[in-house]
Every structure is written in structure tokens, then in C-alpha cells.
Design goal:
By secondary structure, the protein is mainly α. The chain has one domain. Helices cover 73% and strands 0% of the residues. The chain contains eight helices and no strands.
């Protein structure tokens, strides 16, 4: 039962994050502002992803994932790489930032923040990431979010 809860937190909590984010970005952005908003979201997300991958290619806190170090099975899905930064958290955080900056929907944003924290804790408990991998994903997403500050004055 414990393993199932961890799996739900680590993997399946991404589903409501994506669905809630899609709902907010489709229905809470006024029609006349969608192209500009979607362009900014795309550039912010790609910047976060590119920067995360560049840094991850030269900096890896550990060469093995926690489950490999402990000789256990992974408790969640993972890509065959060293794990820094967490792609799950990077994606969830980019979506959460997009919803916040482009819709200003506080309730939806807080729900997404809570779900993102649940995914992060789940990824660590599933032994597929370390806390630094999860924190790294959030930091790179926030780095990409600097685009929103740049575009805010131009709207």
C-alpha cells in the first residue's frame, strides 16, 4: 500500500497538474491575449529546459540514482540518466509558473503548487531523485520564469 501511494504521488499526480494547467491556460487567458501568453510560455519553458539540460550535462551531484546506490528497485518511472534536475518537477513547476504569471488565478496556482510538492516528495520517497534534483528542477523553472517579468512591461 505504501509503495502504491508513493507511485501515485511520484508519477500520477502529474496528471492533475497537466489537466489543471491546461484548463487554466485555455480558459482563463482572455482570447485577445492568448498568442502573446502562449509565446511567452513556450519561450519560458524552453529556456528552463535548455538551461537545465546544459547544467545537468556538466554537473551531476551523483552518478547513480538513490535506488541504485541502495540496491533497491525504483518506486516510480524514471529516465535512464543521472537524474539532475528532475524533469517531472521542472515540467510541473514550469506549468505552475505559467498559470500564475499568465492567469493570476491564486486558487488554481496554489493547488498546482501543492501537487508539485507532492510529486517532488514522491520522487524522493520513490528513490528516483535526491532532494537536490527536485530543488534543481524548481530553480531552473524559476529561471525560465524570468521571461514573464521581461514581457510584463510590454503587454
Amino acid at each position: 500500500m505504501y509503495a502504491l501511494l508513493i507511485r501515485i504521488a511520484a508519477d500520477y499526480a502529474m496528471i492533475p497538474i497537466v489537466l489543471i494547467g491546461a484548463y487554466a491556460l485555455i480558459f482563463k487567458i482572455p482570447k485577445g491575449h492568448r498568442l502573446k501568453s502562449y509565446s511567452t510560455i513556450l519561450v519560458a519553458g524552453l529556456t528552463a529546459y535548455l538551461f537545465a539540460k546544459l547544467v545537468g550535462s556538466v554537473f551531476q551531484p551523483d552518478s547513480l540514482r538513490p535506488f541504485e546506490l541502495l540496491g533497491k528497485s525504483a518506486g516510480a518511472s524514471y529516465l535512464n540518466n543521472a537524474g539532475f534536475p528532475s524533469d517531472h518537477i521542472l515540467f510541473a513547476s514550469v506549468l505552475t509558473c505559467a498559470v500564475w504569471f499568465e492567469t493570476k488565478q491564486k486558487t488554481i496556482t496554489w493547488i498546482m503548487i501543492i501537487l508539485t510538492i507532492i510529486v517532488g516528495v514522491g520522487r524522493v520517497l520513490a528513490l528516483v531523485h535526491t532532494p537536490i534534483d527536485v530543488i534543481g528542477g524548481v530553480i531552473f523553472a524559476l529561471f525560465g520564469s524570468l521571461w514573464y517579468l521581461n514581457c510584463k512591461d510590454k503587454k
